[in-house]
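Escalation from tier 1.

The customer reports that the assembly of two entities below gives different structure tokens on two consecutive runs. Tier 1 could not reproduce it. I'm attaching the input and our single run for tier 2 to review.
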Amino acid sequence: MDWGYIQNVLPLYGKAAWLTLRTGAAGILLAAIVGLLCAAASHWRVPVLRRITAAYVEISRNTPLLIQLFFIYYGLPKIGIRTRPEACGILGLAFLGGGYMTEAFRSGIEAVDRIQEESALSLGLTRTQTFLHVILPQAAAISAPAFMANVVFLMKETSVFSAVSLMDLMFTAKDQIGLYYRTAENLFLLVGAYLLILLPLSLLGSVWERRLRYAGFGT
Amino acid sequence: MPDLGLEVLWKGKNFARLLGSLWVALRISLIAALISVAAGILLGGLASRKQSVFSVILRVWLGIIHIMPQMVLLFLMYFGTTRAFGWNLSGETAAIIVFSLWGTAEMGDLVRGAVSSIPAIQRESAEALGLRPFQVFRFVILPQAVRRLIPLSINLITRMIKTTSLITLIGVVEILKVAQQIIEANRKASPNAAFGVYLTVFVLYYLACRPLSLAAKHLEKHWG
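Tier 1 run:
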């Protein structure tokens, strides 16, 4: 292990880790929004939209992110839709994650007792108010573990971004190994960087889950 | 109607090549799945006994698998171990090893979960009847756990098939690589081939995974 070399490339890995974090966070945020909207559409049984979201969930969950990215990045420009690499990564992650987030939120919403909704409606709350103030807070507690699992999963999925020429951690490692043949140092840095990003996320997820379980939510 | 570049598929053997290369991906996941199911049942069975070393091993192993992206694990196997131990691994073998390590941990966890969901009285009664620990597991616990395990393991296999798309990045010639070759070869004749070919790859992956996840959902509802 050559520590001088590691010190030299550390800034490169810092930059790459920042890119992974940035695109990952943006993609996950978008995925959560998409998931929430789709879950709401399926909860309210919006006529046509419900069918579309169901099909979307099936498609996004049954295809790999790498293929989705290739299609967005290399396929879509041929019919005039062009995206920059970073936007492509975020878009792909949002497309994949939206499906998973929909399922997480939907199962949470379904778990909330039906009487909650009926009571809220009979108290005169509108359907939107009922959803936002009565159902969602309870569903959120139930969905939290699945949501956090999805966050970790999606963060891990960013490791294929290098395929659409994003200079993320994988790209940097492969590049450096190719250039200098320093396999051990680069794999060490690669694993270290992913540990730094994913370990706190995963720990946060399990702490949160335990708290909710002891609080008696979602039982 | 814009040119979607779909006509490339019908030139020569392009479509057959694409299907054949999907088989490379499916074969890798099937081999890894078989290894994972066998090893996972063994590991999960051993880990389900209280205070066994195996439950600690499984926990640590699962922790590593859960935190590291599969892409990183593939890199470690393909570039790391070959350099460290001086052996030679083809991309395909490296992928099978990584997927088996991943699948065994996950399967082990599923088996442990399913086994612990079976009432203790089942084991106690079997032991009282004089069955040895292995016999208890093989003839009493496992048959009851199988119903819960089948849909969950189908889901695992579906995830494996999706993950095989990564192996193109460690140099295995599979569907994405063949798709690239087809697009490159027809760059002049059909410049829009990228759209049609990648769309086809997308659809093929969907067709490979959708029946499996449908079956898993159905069984879960039926048996759950």
